[in-house]
Amino acid sequence: MTGQLRTTRSRAAAWVSLGSVAALLLTACGDDAPEEGAEPSPDQTADSAQDTETPEDETPDAETPDDEAADDEASEDETPDDGETSQDEGTADEDSESADPLDDAELPGEDTATFYSEDGAVAQVFGVEADDVLHIRQLPDPEAETLDNAAPTSELTLTGRERDVDSGIWAEVETDDGVGWVNTAYLAFFADEQDRTAEFSEVPPAEDAQTLAEGVAQRAVGEGEGSEHLEQMLVRPGEADGTGIWGIDVDGFRDDSVRGERWEVTIEQAEGGYEVTTVTSRTVCFRGAEDGLCL
């Protein structure tokens, strides 16, 4: 009986030892893998959050860095803008804020009405040299942002608004993206075109096309008394080979309604260099034109 009891106790001890080993094995393998459906312990949740968190130095910055913003500001300041016409600035500012009409309270100067206050009327750019442009600005101010540029021989549609400021009279005009302002010193109205070719039929050929074209305009206005105050400028060059239409503006006529003239001289190559083939002129008016005459 005593021997049987000892045998039974030995077997029970063996089973206990085996159970302890199994428990130890399950504990070693199961700490990091909780049973399916079980809630993670607070320690496991914290460890998981630390493993997936983006390091602070790798977090992308949604805002523009200070040095990048400074570069953008510097690039805007580099754009030259020193007058109403500019040989350096040939294109409009692509970053202009708005080209919508501004309220009168937002505009400098005072509201006025001269010859450029008819909504929908068309005025021509005048007195701007061929290698220059006329600025169309956001405000009637020579220092305001440039919205667009007008070529020396282009025309502009008026909106009917004008402002009287220290730098002169400004008119609001239409642009591709809305409206802008130009100084009316560079606007005028043209009368009908006149064929003047017969008056220059005896002009001899010349070796230089530009000299020939400008000579025609100079001959037209004369060189006597009263012409010394006139300003003559090339507003349209011919083709690269010297042929084609050359445009010359003559400004400064001392007349109540006539401001000047625009001459267009067509030149072709000839045996002696270049020769004039056709000549036309248009009278340039201050207040407008009707039936081929200045008002």
Could you write a compact summary of the structure shown?
Helices cover 22% and strands 32% of the residues. The chain is α+β, with helices and mostly antiparallel strands and 295 residues long.
Structural topology:
Blueprint: H1 2-30, H2 42-52, H3 66-77, E1 110-112, E2 122-125, E3 134-137, E4 146-150, E5 155-165, E6 168-175, E7 178-183, E8 187-195, H4 209-221, E9 231-236, E10 244-251, E11 258-270, E12 273-285, E13 289-290, E14 293-294
Antiparallel strand pairs: 1-5, 2-5, 2-8, 3-4, 5-6, 6-7, 8-12, 9-10, 10-11, 11-12, 13-14
What does this structure look like?
With 295 residues, the protein is of the alpha+beta class. Among the domains are: 96-187, SH3 Domains (SH3 type barrels), CATH 2.30.30; 196-294, Nuclear Transport Factor 2, Chain: A, CATH 3.10.450. It is built from 4 helices and 14 strands. The chain has helices spanning 2-30, 42-52, 66-77, 209-221, and strands at 110-112, 122-125, 134-137, 146-150, 155-165, 168-175, 178-183, 187-195, 231-236, 244-251, 258-270, 273-285, 289-290, 293-294. The strands form 3 sheets. Strands 1, 2, 5, 6, 7, 8, 9, 10, 11 and 12 form a 10-stranded antiparallel sheet that branches. The longest helix is centred in the first third of the chain and has 29 residues, at 2-30. The radius of gyration is 42 Å and the shape is elongated. It starts with a helix and ends with a strand. The model is unreliable at 1-82 and 87-96 (pLDDT under 50). Residues 53-109 have a biased composition (Acidic residues). Residues 30-112 are annotated as: Disordered.
